[in-house]
Prior knowledge:
By secondary structure, the chain is an alpha+beta fold. The protein has helices at 4-8, 34-54, 62-68, 116-122, 128-133; strands at 16-17, 24-25, 92-96, 111-115.
Amino acid sequence: MVSRRSKLGTMARPSRPCGDCKTTTVTWPRIYCPNCAGVRRLEHYQRKNLKRRAGGTRIMSIRELAERDRWRCHLCRRRVSRTLRYPHPRSASRDHLIPVADGGTNDPANLALAHWDCNVRRRTGGTVQLQLVV
């Protein structure tokens, strides 16, 4: 008995532009190319975890935070560039003064602007918690 698949042979899958980056790839039946799908999945889970951990409060945008903190990293006190974007190590990032893992929230009083690499180096410890007490 000959299977239906062998009768049809290999069909050419239609290619179409990705829903995000518009590059033409074989995406059928998906909407996004593999790279964009991975980024969207990561963002989805980050939003989901923020809501779960911090009670769904709205988080300040990096631009709002930077304007409030006058584009200064609160860890090294140097200026943060307005033009650099992640994954550049000196790009702007949000730092939770009390880490979300330790019960911190997304309240603006618990957020500060930091260079991405300064933020990564500090992790969940550092002197920031001591500065809150003072």
